[in-house]
Amino acid sequence: MEKIVEQGLLYDFYGELLTEHQRHIYEDVVFNDMSLSEIAEEQGISRQGVHDLIKRCDKILTGYEEKLKLVQKFNQTKKMVEEIKELAGAYKQNGDISLIDRIEQLSEEIGRL
């Protein structure tokens, strides 16, 4: 399951950098849950060809992430936003002003990402 989520995120960020053919086949595997055999039959290519294309796409998308780190930054930002929401809720409950310092710190870190 985790691999599918990772593939989906990588595709969301970098999918437009694949060719139209690569995108179509990758979407069928990752989002439409089609088997390699189904795609091979639909595309008129071998099952091995589909397998190789998916591996190549995974490598391409992972390469972009290694260089650009957009998914990593997205995940970091998401975690920080969740923490800010929790801190804001805690502040509303007890009025602890020190929580505001942490919120400011997190917002500055988000600004630097």
Account of the 3D structure:
This protein is mainly alpha-helical. Helices cover 83% and strands 0% of the residues. The chain has 6 helices and no strands. The protein has helices at 2-14, 20-30, 36-43, 47-68, 70-94, 98-112. Helix 2 (20-30) crosses helix 4 and helix 5 packs antiparallel against helix 6 (98-112). It starts with a helix and ends with a helix.
Q: Report the β-strand fraction as a percent range.
A: under 5%
Our count of helices gives: 6
Largest sheet properties? none
Cα end-to-end separation: 28 Å
Structural class: mainly alpha
What's the β-strand tally?
0
Q: Whole-number average pLDDT?
A: 92
The SSE order reads: HHHHHH
* Uncertain residue segments: none
Helix content estimate: over 70%
Shape: elongated
What integer value in Å does the Rg equal? 20 Å
Quick take:
With 113 residues, this protein is an all-alpha fold. It contains 6 helices and no strands.
List keywords for this structure.
single chain, 113 residues, mainly alpha, 6 helices, elongated
List the helices and strands and how they pair.
Elements: H1 2-14, H2 20-30, H3 36-43, H4 47-68, H5 70-94, H6 98-112
Helix pairs in contact: 1-4, 2-4, 3-4, 5-6
